[in-house]
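debug: dumping io for the single-chain case to check the tokenizer round-trip. Nothing else runs in this session.
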Amino acid sequence: MPLSRRNLLKSGALLSTAPLLSGPSAGQSSRDLPRAFDTLKPLGSRVKPIATAEFHDRIGHAQRIMTESKPQISALYLPSGSSCYYYSGIRWGTSERLMALVLPRTGDAVLVCPAFEEGRLRELLRWPIEVRSWQEDQNPSSLIAKWLVERSIRSGRVAIEETTRYTFFGHLRDAAPGLEYVSGDPITIGCRAGKSEHELELMRLACEATCDVFRAVFASLHEGLTARDIAGLVLGGFSRIGLQGGALVLLGPSAALPHGTIQPRKLREGEPVLIDGGTSVEGYASDVTRTGLLGKSSEKLQRAFDTLRLAQNAALDAARGGKLSGSVDDAARSEVVSAGFGPDYKFFTHRLGHGIGLDGHEHPYLVRGSKTILKSGMTFSNEPGIYVPGDYGVRLEDLMVVTPQGPAELLTPGFSPSLEKPLG
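debug: decoded output
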């Protein structure tokens, strides 16, 4: 698997990619870690799991959205994945065998799963939910169509969650051709984009743990380390806390490639060290990037760092309830371009940020032209970068939440204070 930030984000929490997990330097045991890691401790009782009542509230919220839609939506179809977990508390891998949750506009939900896995599914139920199982030679979509008819849903609209495989959608459409199929985004995004105080606390814990690990890593750097060595330190640090996590590590000119490179490189004094990664707590992800270096910063790196800090401040101030999501990217990009790193995407090559929660990347997004109206509880990465191909790259990334009034607030413990001490 090539080393890239996109691969790190696929699982929701940013986990190390396969190359980082192999070999003696990947994920050192706790007793082999440098002394800077000695202060890392498990989160323990600070972690409060999502309660059954919270899952019920989420279902109720989805059903209200379905009822208030014009025209109304009769049911929401959710294959296994983060949205299925959001409403049911069930974590289930995705495969060619369908497991799905169907929420009606009124009444109780149903789960559909392979018959040989029904026992395992029932063990995961947080409360009694009807389960209908299918044998290997049966069409599971026919079971769903039959259940819909039993609920008097013979016509109307069924909302399909965005990650549904086309083959599953096609089979359902063939089994229930009298229904109209629409996007489930207004329901799932409408529920998931605004985080509860409990969800925000879990994200704060994940961010705090990430910053603690990164602090220990930066304190342990020395010349000659490879990106793989440093990624192994990150992995070991999260293990010390009792969490799974990892990071993309880019050294020197490689940091000009925002999502990574396969080219090997060793750490040298004065060159940037970009570490981008995180973990998850009860499924809620962190995503933090710090750029640092050994020795004293050069003028060009310092100028890039100072520009990005101004861009982060501008984004934090622009991310206010009632504003358009695209305006936050505009505010940050204006600072970067006005400092001479432009025009447009020339050196700041990607959008400002992404939504984050149960998925490392989720709706909404902070990108030019986006018309999403920001609301309290929405959570985003704030990650401007400056990338000069063949020379250097600097990225600073923190998480923030839109507040009821005023500018957004950080979910990370604080912005990076300097290149020499990226975590203070």
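debug: round-trip ok. The two ends are 34 Å apart (CA to CA).
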